[in-house]
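Protein modeling request. Please complete all fields; requests missing the sequence field cannot be processed.
Requester role: graduate student
Desired output: 3D structure, token encoding
Chains: 1
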Amino acid sequence: MTTAEPAVRLRGVTKVYDGGVAALGPLDLDIARGAFVSLLGPSGCGKSTALRLIAGLAAPSTGAVEVARAAAPGAVGFVFQEPTLMPWASVRDNVYLPLRLAGVARRAAMPRVEAMLARVGLADFTEAVPRELSGGMKMRVSLARALVTEPDILLLDEPFAALDEITRFRLNNDLLALWRDLGKTIVFVTHSVFESVYLSQRVLVMTARPGRISATFAIAGPEPRGEAFRTSPDYAAQCRAVSAALAGAGEDPSREGVR
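Delivered output (259 residues):
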């Protein structure tokens, strides 16, 4: 699924905020087209900052961020930790929002909106408003909204952190199915060792602030992945290896999500 040409390239990237707080870097990173890569590290290590730099929502203090087809409309989709839905708008209109902002007429956009809602399992909830949805359903709306612009790259910043374990597992599987079907490049931020190993082709462990890459793990697992992998000795062994690297990077492996 991946190709040799990188979708994202960071070279010597740093980010220093007002007041002199060094949040990130120097960071060097290549992410191949079609890859699923997770960023894992201690709280405050700059994982979310790295996503914002890739998305163009912030500028690096030094270094270069190169994103393939960065000039194309909708080339990068972003799913935040909170769904950030318009509470007064229907599911359909929440997903239509980025197309509306891009100047796409409602009549022309609706087939894409309806198709994406069907793909994330919300075909029967197009007229619902956010207060009528569960947490998992709200996150599906957020995911559909990010994908409706047909981005090449999908960035996800701890999107499932607030969900119960059953819902989280289900959305993990759904996200993997979307990745396989749509061929997107995915960069996923998480605090969970288990989630990172289950989802990713590659896990990048970051140091405490200012965040740098301290360890890289190529995850060996069957495709498509499922519960057999999640309960296998091989999965458990890879989780232990990543957890040990995370502890060395400044994280406490006893915290929730790192068991």
